[in-house]
Amino acid sequence: MKTILSIVLMGALSIVNCQLSIAQVTAVLHADQAGSVIPKEIYGQFAEHLGSCIYGGLWVGENSDIPNTSGYRTDVLNALKALKVPVLRWPGGCFADEYHWMDGIGPKENRPKMVNNNWGGTIEDNSFGTNEFLNLCELLGTEPYISGNVGSGSVEEMAKWVEYITSEGDSPMARLRRQNGRDHAWRVKYWGVGNESWGCGGSMRPEYYSDVYRRYATYCRNYDGNRLFKVASGASDYDYNWTKVLMENVGSRMDGLSLHYYTVLNWNSKGSATQFNEEEYYKTLGKCCGIEDVIKRHIAIMDFYDPNKRVALMLDEWGTWWDVEPGTNPGHLFQQNSLRDAFVASLTFDIFHKYTERLKMANIAQVVNVLQSMILTNGKQMTLTPTYHVFRMYNVHQDATYLPLDIQTIRKEVPDSDWTLPMLSGTASRNQQGKVHISLTNVDLQNAQEVSITLQGINAKQVSGEILTSANIADHNTFDKPELVKPAVFSGATIIGNTLKVKLPAKSIVTLELQ
Ligand code: AHR
Questions:
Q1: Is the residue at 371 inside a domain?
Q2: Are 433 and 368 in a shared domain?
Q3: Residue 325 annotated among the catalytic residues of the structure
Q4: 25-60 pLDDT, tens per residue?
Q5: Which of 142, 153, 230, 268 has minimal Cβ neighbours within 10 Å of its Cβ?
Q6: Claim to verify: residue 395 and residue 407 sit in the same structural domain
Q7: Stated pTM of the model
Q8: Probe ligand 1: pick from 45, 46, 48, max atoms within 8 Å of CB?
Q9: pLDDT by residue (tens digit) across 187-200?
């Protein structure tokens, strides 16, 4: 493993203590320089008809012997409620551009089956459709984000879907909805006009998709006080040209433009979720932090065409993507989730918080049983992943005011790349009740770090917190050991005068509350 090569900011010292070193780090919390509100929607989730995300994960049906609430798994519902999911994207992903919504309404026994061509050729029985999704959002108190079918669906089909969901009047689709047992329209704000339209969503070029977007979006109407927030299908990773062409040609007609970014280092061999070495760990976190440059560059293009920041950047797919778990269907993308995944989540949020003047939503892929999931299920069993715990520990930042936290950390150069990785990362905010929260991540696998944070503009007397760590970075929760990795009370922080001192063990994530 390469040693630390660069010091980006001053002030980091290493004190050798027996075999291990404890890096002394300084930081300043500028509580007197409040930034913008961190939109809760950057903590969004994504539910796709893929593997056992929907069937078995969220939905088991009313007749299942798995305890359920009107067909939704009760254990999963409760876990998601605790997470405070602000927005849920559905039904895909690639699935969305082959999904015909009319197949998923009405009496279940009459719903036609389809082949899920994108994801293992599994037979989809359409028992979870529009009503089931929107009712789930109501149960969770979450905002729905629907991805419409542009790739293989018609303009008429999409227009009618909007009408079915949001029209209160005596319109044909509202009547159909009433026949299906739902009297009042739902409120749906976020509407995706296609997904990955450069790939599984239709293999289009950006110039062509721009016109297609304009056509489909024209007929996505605002019914009866419902106001759609229309999201154009955006780029993946480094495809800055896609963003440029969309901003040039569609600019004023979209409310949001999406972006997808996964931490994959090699698409031909993504690596195991649970068996990896130190170098792979640091490389993955390097790729994770590489999202900052990608976000900045897409934002710079958007700023050029839209200096008033009217169009939102919507990172509606992100996260880790490993090889599937041995013995599982390769088309179902079922992966484990270790403490390394938790670090990807915390570092990513630390970055997101800095760009929320433009970045208004993010949706990790996917909520249950697929990529970097919150929850894994197996029959009646369920376990929460380390990533879930980070989402729960960080949800104190939802809709809170961003506070700059300047950490004078060393940065590690990531082998074979241009990425550098902060060894200590963090973020801070003040919530509507005036409480300040600070989240800190010690990326270092071997060494503890002691950080002295000068508190400016806040007179805090008490600190409490939670920590997420484990003996090994590859530790993960299984159905046999569902609580191997879980948060614990943290007592390593003290306040003396205007200095907050925090001793972070190696490979740990902490969230503190100051009062
Ligand atoms: O998240 C899995 C797939 O990744 C999604 O369906 C697609 O949009 C992306 O390529």
A1: yes
A2: no
A3: no
A4: 999 999 999 999 999 999 999 999 999 999 999 999
A5: 268
A6: no
A7: 0.95
A8: 48
A9: 999 999 999 999 99
